[in-house]
Amino acid sequence: MEVTLLGTGAPAGLPRPDCPCASCARALGPEVRAATAALVDGTLLLDLTPGAAFAAARAGQSLGGVRQVLMSHPHDGPPVEVPAGLPQPGRVPDGRELALLTGHRVRALALDAPGTGYAVTGPDGLRLLYLPPGTAPAGLQGPAEPYDMVLADAVGRPDALAKLRAVGALGPATDVVAVHLDHDVPPGAELRRRLAAAGARAVPDGTTLAVGAYPDVSALPDVPRRTLVLGGARSGKSVEAERRLEAFPDVLYVATGGSRNGDTEWAERVAAHRERRPGSWRTTETCDLVPLLAQDGPPLLIDCLSLWLTDAMDAVNAWDDAEWADGGERALRARMEELARAVRNTRRTVVAVSNEVGSGIVPATASGRRYRDELGRLNAAFAAECEHVLLVVAGQALTLRA
Length: 402
Hints:
The chain has eleven helices and 19 strands. It is α/β, with parallel strands linked by helices. Strands 5-6-7-8-9-10-11 form a seven-stranded mixed β-sheet.
């Protein structure tokens, strides 16, 4: 089964008409995207968009063999003209299956937003899932057979991928292709980086993909198993870390800061973090990271190493010069080395957050300088065990190691 993506953009396209934003200004050449539409084996068209016939011709395809046109979501704007010879577009009711004379079977999936998802099984038995923009499947039951390819709004609704992974409908060999791409993420390197974190990719308009072409899928960048996200205060480092795991279910969020009873400002910070996490994530408050890293289980998001270090330094009374010199420093270094070994040996997916404080003003106190120095050592030791290291500045993620 082959799929030609006549468009890969949001319903308004990319760049959006008359939009002055930076993302639209940078959407040039292969980053220009028409509204998403997919032509399956030249016979099934998923979503009819303006200029579909011309888009097919540019891709070396023809709509002359199309026997079924299915719409997946309400389309705003002027009515789309149906090219001559093309059947009238229709929708399949949720849960119903449509059998085509070409041997394709199409089953309509219920979604959590207006629209219809389509699971297409080709004559060769390969399976494709197509989801409209801004939607995720509803009422999924597992275990499910993995799809060979998923076309979905991986940027706008990464939780759709998490739901599919949770029931087994998205497996390691599933080719996840992002469609309905809008101007929320700058095109180019930033888009590719975000999609790679979710195990997805983007392709230019007009690309023809072979469903189930596993050699091509194996060439995709793997989701990094260990990632360290560094940044200053309010740099966006926690948001970046959470974004890297929002396409995965059952994440364990490890909060190292505790509740700090009586500190209302801290409670407000904690509440803001909790509100933006996916509902399927669990939270544990602990600084005992080594046992968690040694266990098998879902991905860990550790936020943050800076507070872990504060707890570790408190435990050895590192703020007292005499105790620091009389074994406190050695005890702290031993605990940091133990953590680094646990990161090296872990088989879990780990994303950790830490502050980068060494580039600012030199602390006025000896204890402040001690903490700054030890945090620098901890960050370096942790980063040495990670496949991926990012530095977030002003909300922009810079790759230090990939």
